[in-house]
């Protein structure tokens, strides 16, 4: 029989036999790559002995020879075959059922989770695009302002034009006055 359970949950396994006068029962676990591992031995008088650190992982309830074994806090390490063996002196009698436990690690995402993830992703994309556009528009506006306030000038000629435009409105406005005065001295 196969049992599927989610991680962190528990699962109950029946461990019983129809043969009477048994001395005790062993429960074993074997995964795909290892030898069988004894989890516990339950004696007919009610005494229970665990192997390794399975005391906190396995609990046993019921009356001998019909026991209910509970595997607690399941993880991927619990994926294995589980079975019981009853003993009477040197004779081993397998339990009625061999169990295969499969811990389901892949949970399907719910529709609501997909919708929330899509909405958040879309919102992040819109914010990202707005930030990029704002930066680009800001750069363009800054360049435009710089162009309006900083016009190129022909420094010497511009100064001369401003200085002499009020007094002389002739074609000689852009002529250097010192040059004119020197030129006037040289005339014969």
Q: Outline the low-pLDDT stretches.
A: none
Number of helices: 3
CATH class of the largest domain: Mainly Beta
Per CATH, the superfamily of the largest domain is Immunoglobulins
Number of strands: 10
Largest sheet: 7 strands, mixed
Which of globular, elongated, flat, extended, rod-shaped describes the shape? Answer: rod-shaped
User: Mean pLDDT score, rounded?
Assistant: 74
CATH topology (level 3) name of the largest domain: Immunoglobulin-like
End-to-end CA span: 131 Å
Series of H and E elements? EEEEEEEEEEHHH
Q: Whole-number radius of gyration?
A: 47 Å
Percent range for β-strand residues:
25-35%
Protein name: Immunoglobulin V-set domain-containing protein
Keywords: Membrane, Transmembrane, Transmembrane helix
GO cellular component, one term: membrane
Pfam families: V-set (PF07686)
How does this structure look, described?
- One of its GO terms (molecular function) is signaling receptor activity.
- Residues 3-100 form the Immunoglobulin V-set domain.
- InterPro entries: CD7, Ig-like_dom_sf, Ig-like_fold, Ig_V-set.
- Keywords: Membrane, Transmembrane, Transmembrane helix.
- It holds the Pfam family V-set.
- By secondary structure, the protein is of the alpha+beta class.
- It folds into 2 domains: 2-103, Immunoglobulins (Immunoglobulin-like), CATH 2.60.40; 108-150.
- Helices cover 31% and strands 30% of the residues.
- It is built from 3 helices and 10 strands; from the N terminus they run ββββββββββααα.
- The chain has helices spanning 111-149, 155-165, 177-185, and strands spanning 2-5, 11-16, 24-30, 37-43, 48-50, 58-63, 66-71, 80-88, 91-94, 99-103.
- The strands form 2 sheets. Strands 1, 3, 4, 5, 8, 9 and 10 form a 7-stranded mixed beta sheet that branches. Strands 2-7-6 form a 3-stranded antiparallel beta sheet, with no helix packed on it.
- The mean pLDDT is 74.
């Amino acid at each position: 029989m196969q049992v599927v359970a989610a991680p962190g949950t528990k699962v109950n396994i029946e461990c019983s036999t129809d043969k009477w006068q048994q001395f005790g029962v062993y429960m074993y676990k074997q995964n795909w790559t290892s030898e069988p591992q004894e989890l516990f031995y339950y004696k007919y008088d009610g005494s229970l002995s665990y192997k390794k650190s399975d005391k906190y992982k396995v609990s046993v309830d019921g009356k001998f020879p019909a026991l209910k074994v509970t595997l607690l806090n399941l993880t991927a390490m619990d994926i294995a075959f589980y079975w019981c063996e009853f003993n009477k002196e040197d004779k081993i009698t397998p339990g009625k059922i061999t169990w295969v436990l499969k811990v389901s690690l892949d949970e399907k995402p719910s529709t609501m989770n997909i919708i929330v993830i899509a909405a958040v992703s879309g919102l992040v994309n819109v914010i990202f695009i707005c930030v990029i556009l704002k930066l680009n528009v800001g750069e363009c506006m800054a360049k435009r302002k710089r162009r309006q306030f900083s016009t190129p000038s022909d420094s010497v000629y511009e100064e001369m034009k401003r200085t002499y435009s009020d007094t002389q409105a002739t074609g000689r406005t852009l002529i250097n006055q010192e040059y004119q005065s020197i030129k006037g001295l040289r005339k014969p």
